[in-house]
Design goal:
Length: about 280
């Protein structure tokens, strides 16, 4: 695995790969890799000549300083995991390398960014868009892989690629879950044993709610799931939304959407967990 810490080193490595007409599958990450990331990487590796991964804890997408400071950083373990999935190029810049100048770009995603994560984490998606666009320009991937756990992020990145005609194909991949249903996330590492034991109730509440589609309206389903989450006193739900899966707008009637999902963000101890499941 070639490790590049500078844009220059990465540029040279990518130039060489592209001259050899190699397709590049790219998985951008913030490190603290888990099976969910590795699944994206295995798929990227199998569908392309080369696998490129970035590890960069992007300060400008955190709207909470403590969340940024406490974000797990486990470089050596990550490196071993990357070797195990056959990563060819790792780009691991520091903050100055990624942002030599103050960031001025402002991206607008209309209604996509006014709901859920966009509403509760001001500036978050701008930070994601800035870093992902820069990473795409540096890595020049053929395909880039993103998990559906961050479903709204995926929608924002698709809009970014479309809006700026970026020459990359976005590949959505299903959420990878622990055996008890908890969506895999780097933040799970920060849960206490007791918090970890109850965290799967988030997925259970969403799945049960989704199964009630034939007897509840979208708004009734939203309230049902919220009440279910409130039954666990340690959970502090920020939102539950039942939304059209294509534009993420809250759904009034089932007939208004071709596919729908139920989404939530829940504070549990020091961690904010998000999850979503398809309804249909
Ligand atoms: O999903 C993530 O880990 C991050 O938001 C991403 C896409 C790597 C951008 O920093």
């Amino acid at each position: 695995m070639l490790v590049c810490n500078t844009r220059k080193a990465l540029h040279n490595a990518i130039d060489e790969s592209l001259q050899g007409q190699k397709s590049i599958g790219f998985v951008p990450t913030m490190g603290a890799l888990h099976e969910g990331h590795l699944e994206l990487m295995r798929r990227a590796k199998s569908e392309n000549d080369l696998l490129a991964v970035s590890i960069f804890v992007n300060p400008i997408q955190f709207n909470n300083r403590e969340d940024y400071d406490k974000y797990p950083r486990v470089a050596e373990t990550d490196r071993q995991l990357l070797e195990s999935v056959g990563c060819d190029i790792l780009f691991s810049p520091d903050e100055h390398e990624m942002y030599p100048e103050p960031v001025k770009e402002r991206y607008h995603f209309g209604a996509l960014e006014t709901v859920m994560e966009g509403a509760f984490r001001p500036g978050h998606f701008n930070g994601v868009a800035v870093v992902v666009k820069r990473l795409f320009e540096l890595v020049r991937p053929t395909k880039a892989y993103f998990g559906e756990k961050d479903y709204q992020q995926l929608a924002i990145i698709k809009a970014l690629v479309e809006g700026y005609h970026l020459p990359v194909q976005i590949v959505p991949c299903p959420t990878v879950r622990e055996a008890d249903g908890l969506a895999m996330s780097s933040r799970n590492m920060r849960l206490s044993p007791n918090e970890r034991a109850i965290a799967p109730k988030i997925y259970k509440a969403l799945s049960k709610a989704a199964s009630l589609r034939n007897v509840l309206s979208p708004e009734e389903m939203r309230i049902w799931a919220l009440n279910e989450l409130y039954k666990t006193p340690e959970f502090h739900p920020e939102y539950v939304e039942v939304a059209d899966a294509s534009n993420l707008q809250p759904l009034q009637h089932w007939n208004d959407a071709a596919s729908a999902r139920i989404f939530t963000a829940v504070h549990l101890g020091p961690v904010r967990l998000i999850d979503n499941v398809p309804i249909f």
